[in-house]
Specification:
- There is one protein chain.
- It is built from twelve helices and 21 strands.
- By secondary structure, it is an alpha/beta fold.
- The chain has a nine-stranded mixed beta sheet, sandwiched between helices. Strands 10-11-12-15 form a four-stranded antiparallel beta sheet. Strands 20-19-18-21 form a four-stranded mixed beta sheet.
- The model has no long low-confidence stretch (mean pLDDT 95).
- The structure holds adenosine monophosphate (AMP) and zinc ion.
């Protein structure tokens, strides 16, 4: 049974009726309160009454990240500050952060979305959850905290970092669930093995991971190392944080909380909608939030949608795991390369490497050069330099063959790459801008 079967199992027609009403309400809300939206809507010559079906959302203008930067900090906020009860910020490292204000009701909605998410992952009252997402401005920590609290779990808000203490508490408290970025989960798993207290031997049963891209191969590795089920969760600061979409037990895509978020997939070049099953950029509209409901926000995240029936009984549309971002895409001598694609190619060499890698892009004379630093296993290094070169060559040839781009693979000694405690750094682009 889902957490909220009324909305999670609502027939499509009914859902679309609900969405249309909420969409119109939201368009009126922002047009009356946010000069930025009033101007945009007037320029586009559109108002709420022009929306006759959810498909008419295409008449509305897009919102992009730069609009949030240009209106920093509260230019897009639709309520007076005395109605704001929380302000989060994005984890971005360049320029001004993205601000996310919430009303009390927005916070409740968020907790509801997160409760659906964690319930679908199998969490129940009685679970002891270690929340190792960064606690603070980042939406991850408090987002998961609220959802688990709503279900009635015992939450241990460790936040990220201090990995050894993290592992000690996990064992001593008998945590049954872990929340963190997938890369930090691997860091914890590795460190726990080194400390002689493998997570596999602990009661931990499930992990709810997200906030950064990860592959099926990485899921396998986490599940193998920790002896748990690793579930995927998606969200972003601009739309209020995690809990936008979540996996159910079928683990065949992430259900989108579409009574809260209207989703579209567009061709990022023509802006035309693509059909279900086709890859494109995800565009999201928050139809129930009140402090900062964004209209047609271009996420830059690439995925596909499906409305095929899910075996879990939920009718909520499903998105595929994020396979890349339009802005993460590296163009190496004219060839498009996604870090996620490199990750899955690397994962085919699990016997010789561990899935810790860094992509470095440089200019060599006039050409781009992609260097893939990946950690080799201890046994490879123990077998001598000949073996190391052999493995490097083998992986290089494989990636060249499949991705159609020249790369140089450099094996790094075990533990040679910096471990993540939050979102992993996977790409360093050293090309002059
Ligand atoms: P932030 O606003 O800092 O939380 O970052 C949000 C971004 O993180 C999204 O737009 C995605 O690019 C990425 N992200 C979040 N969750 C996931 C996930 N489960 N899989 C892949 N990428 C994710
Ligand atoms: Zn399902």
């Amino acid at each position: 049974m889902p957490w909220n079967d009324e909305f999670e199992c609502m027939p499509l027609e009914e859902m679309q009726k609900f969405q249309l009403a909420k969409l119109k309400e939201t368009v009126n809300w922002v047009m009356e309160r946010v000069p930025f939206y009033r101007k945009k809507m007037e320029e586009a010559g559109v108002k709420a009454d022009d929306l006759k079906s959810v498909a008419d959302i295409r008449k509305l203008p897009f919102t992009v990240k730069n609009d949030l930067r240009d209106n920093y900090p509260f230019g897009l906020c639709a309520v007076p500050m005395n109605e704001v009860v929380r302000i989060h910020c994005s984890s971005g490292t360049t320029g001004k952060p993205i601000t996310g204000p919430y009303t009390a009701d927005d916070i409740d909605q968020w907790a509801e979305c997160m409760a659906r998410d964690l319930w679908a992952a199998g969490l129940r009252k009685g679970d002891i959850v270690q929340n190792a997402y960064g606690m603070g401005l980042f939406t991850g920590g408090l987002g998961f905290h609220q959802g688990a609290t709503k279900i009635g779990c015992a939450v241990v808000p460790t936040s990220s970092g201090m990995t050894e203490r993290q592992i000690m508490l996990m064992r001593d408290f008998g945590a049954t669930a872990l929340f963190s970025t997938p890369s930090y989960a691997l860091t914890i798993a590795e460190r726990a093995e080194e400390m002689g207290m493998p997570v596999k031997d602990m009661p931990l049963r499930v992990g709810c991971f997200g906030a950064e891209p990860w592959s099926e191969a990485m899921r396998d590795e986490i599940e193998r190392k920790m002896g748990i089920m690793a579930m995927n969760t998606y969200g972003l600061t601009e739309l209020g944080g995690p809990g936008m979409a979540f996996e159910c037990e079928a683990r065949n895509g992430l259900h989108i909380n579409e009574d809260h978020f209207l989703v579209e997939i567009i061709d990022p070049v023509t802006f035309e909608p693509v059909s279900d099953g086709q890859r494109g950029e995800m565009v999201l509209t928050a139809i129930q939030r009140r402090a900062m409901p964004l209209i047609r926000f271009r996420t830059k995240d690439i995925t596909t949608l499906t409305r095929e029936r899910c075996s879990c009984g939920r009718t909520l549309v499903r998105m595929d795991r994020i396979t890349g971002r339009t802005d993460d895409m590296l163009i190496i001598n004219g060839v498009n390369v996604f870090p996620s694609q490199v990750e899955s190619l690397l994962s085919e060499f699990n016997d010789e490497i561990v899935l810790q890698y860094l992509l470095v892009v440089r200019k060599k004379k006039h050409l781009d050069e992609l260097i893939i630093r990946v950690e080799g296993k201890k046994e490879v290094f123990e077998a001598g330099p000949g073996k190391v070169t052999h493995v490097e060559k083998k992986i290089t040839e494989h990636i060249k063959g499949v991705a159609g781009v020249g790369v140089t693979v450099e094996l790094v000694e075990p533990k040679g790459l910096v471990r993540s405690e939050g979102k992993a750094l996977r790409v360093v682009d050293e090309r002059p801008k």
